[in-house]
Specification:
Arc Repressor Mutant, subunit A, Tetracycline Repressor, domain 2, 69% helix, globular
Length: 218
């Protein structure tokens, strides 16, 4: 990474850190972009250059949030369905108590649920993630452009992720600790993903590549 890129990253991190500090202290809806700029010691325009929407100062995870399920499907193993890959990846994220699936701490979770603007932005995150997942499923299954199946599958899978994310926030705000939430989510994930098996267990299974028999042409 060059010096210019490093400085840009440091500036972005400083803005994000100061914004989060102010939001947690006073609530998201009671802090202005101008106040964030003062705290980060940058111009207001610098803040908006890095974060065009105020909501993204608090939810600085759009790209990874949207990308992960689609990436999981694209990188699934031989013989693995999209459903199985996503269930496996979700359980791994639960074990890691990953903030991307909602492990954000009580103060941050409360800030989100108490702000209509942030909850609305999160809905957009979920919608964008569903569209990205549908696009990858269509690509991975060579679906016809008029085939609605990838979108139907993505809607079901995204709904499970959305439900589990909301459950994580809800339990965090209620005061459950992360270990307790992890145990509950593991069981909820088994139920939620399992409910999709009748329709998706055999969908988008990656073909297993076998080696040719000895002496056969390559």
């Amino acid at each position: 990474m060059g010096l210019r890129e490093l400085k840009k990253r440091q500036t972005r991190e400083t803005i994000s850190h100061q914004a989060t500090r102010l939001f947690l202290e006073r609530g998201f809806d009671h802090v202005t972009i101008a106040e964030v700029a003062v705290a980060a010691q940058v111009a207001k325009m610098t803040v908006t250059n890095y974060f065009p929407r105020k909501e993204d100062l608090a939810l600085d995870m759009h790209d990874v949030f949207v990308r992960l399920p689609a990436q999981t499907v694209r990188e699934r193993g031989p013989g693995e369905s999209a459903l199985a890959a996503l269930h496996r990846a979700y359980l791994s994220a639960v074990a890691d108590q990953d903030p991307v699936i909602g492990f954000s701490g009580p103060e941050f979770a409360r800030m989100i649920v108490e702000s209509p603007a942030l909850t609305a932005r999160l809905r957009e995150f979920h919608d964008d993630r569903e569209k990205a997942l549908a696009a990858v499923l269509a690509e991975e299954t060579d679906a016809d452009p008029d085939d609605i199946t990838p979108r139907v599958a993505a809607a079901q899978l995204a709904a499970v992720h959305r439900l589990l994310f909301e459950e994580t926030l809800h339990r965090t705000v209620q005061g459950h600790d992360n270990d307790d939430i992890s145990r509950t989510l593991t069981e909820h994930a088994r139920t939620a993903f399992g409910s999709l098996e009748p329709s998706l267990a055999d969908y988008a299974i990656r073909e297993e590549h076998t080696s040719p028999p000895p002496g056969s042409p390559m």
